[in-house]
Predict the structure.
Amino acid sequence: FVGGIDFGWNDPFAAVCGFVDNNDCLWVWYERYKSETPIEDHATALPKFADRTIKWYADHEPEYIRKLQKGGHKVKKANKAIIAGIDAVNRRIYTDRLKILCNRCPALKAEAESYCYPANDEEQIVGDKPQGGDDHALDALRYMIVGLDIKKAA
């Protein structure tokens, strides 16, 4: 089991979680997406299992990471490289190794549908980085996939 977390207060705290099956397909089945909520409440709400650990890859907020760890979660800092992360997500998409249960992850689905790159007046994409904005669950997904696949890429 693996997860990704993008911390936020005014912007939402976004966490997504899934598992990898025997065919190396990542199934994303859980989402937490809330604003203006204390980290301790998130620590209580995030899933835990008695017989297995979820390895979370999180945004770089040491105090929040410590509080989640104190709440019994295994959390480490994520690799936040945007372009490499997008490549890692695309690799899973194009090889049919990413499945998202959209009925359980509505914010992730909505963000993916509105995700775009900046364009010029002729509607041509400019640059390699996506347009900022509502991409918190997508950031969490990217952290999770890079954390999961970093050894494979090396």
About this structure: The first helix runs from residue 39 to 45. The helical segments are 39-45, 62-70, 82-94, 106-114, 136-153. The beta strands are 2-6, 13-20, 26-34, 55-58, 74-77, 98-100.
